[in-house]
């Protein structure tokens, strides 16, 4: 999972002073998620399903934010390491 991988790299950078490769910020997974929601949503009606969809969306957005911010931290740390070497 992206979050676990990024967290492990960040932990290595911060705690163990081990350099890590950058992670590309990709929208591919989120496009698949959006397509699945758009396919599923028209089939179901009623507030019961809308509440479930909202819950899933909130959790997915939080995971997306965490993964994106972790990758940004990895990128920032590499820039800092490169500047320190100069």
Descriptive report:
Helix content is 77%, strand content 0%. It is mainly alpha-helical and 86 residues long. It has one domain. The model has no long low-confidence stretch (mean pLDDT 80).
In summary, what is this structure?
77% of the residues lie in helices and 0% in strands. The protein has 86 residues and is mainly α. α1 (2-15) runs parallel beside α3.
Features:
single chain; 86 residues; mainly alpha; 3 helices; 0% strand; elongated
Please specify the SSE layout and strand pairing.
Blueprint lengths: L1 H14 L12 H13 L6 H39 L1
Helix pairs in contact: 1-3
Strand content: under 5%
Element order: H for helix, E for strand: HHH
Low-confidence stretches: none
Regarding quaternary structure, what we see is: single chain
For the sheet with most strands, the description reads: none
Roughly how many Å apart are the termini? 34 Å
Number of domain modules: 1
